[in-house]
Backbone:
């Protein structure tokens, strides 16, 4: 049983893109990484049971987040969309490959998987996502609460309803 929760990765403003929904989704991804790390007990059976229970939900969460980002980029003609989409697709492929190997009986180290996710989130959010965040700020007036005043407001509102 997990005795003490550790924040393996902590939210900070360096991850903020200035849009509340996307920042909240990024926080959710960081929370998943922390939960994953906290379940890395070294006991293969415990780790297997945990991973089996959460991976489909995590895959769906990541897919929903990517769709939200990509819809916003397309709606605003973001210049970096193609490269960003390719990075998303490459990441999804790596996750699916890990899940398929896990499902085929390969032992998956939760701590190694948490390291992979942490590194990817840190580099992707802090570098690539910042690009669209800066772009959105240039094309939209952003209120203090993080809500956009233009075409993005409709997308964000719809995605918030889906995210529930």
Residues:
């Amino acid at each position: 049983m997990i005795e003490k929760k550790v924040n393996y990765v902590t939210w900070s403003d360096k991850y903020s893109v200035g849009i509340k929904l996307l920042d909240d989704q990024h926080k959710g991804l960081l929370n998943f990484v922390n939960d994953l790390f906290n379940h890395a007990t070294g006991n293969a059976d415990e780790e297997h049971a945990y991973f089996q229970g959460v991976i489909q939900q995590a895959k769906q969460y990541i897919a929903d987040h990517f769709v939200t980002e990509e819809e916003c980029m397309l709606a605003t003609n973001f210049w970096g969309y193609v490269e960003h989409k390719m990075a998303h697709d490459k990441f999804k492929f790596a996750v699916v490959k890990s899940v398929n190997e896990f499902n085929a009986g390969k032992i998956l180290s939760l701590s190694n998987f948490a390291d992979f996710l942490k590194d990817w989130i840190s580099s992707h959010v802090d570098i690539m996502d910042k690009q669209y965040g800066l772009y959105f700020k240039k094309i939209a007036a952003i209120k203090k609460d993080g809500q956009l005043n233009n075409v993005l407001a409709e997308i964000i509102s719809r995605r918030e309803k889906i995210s529930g």
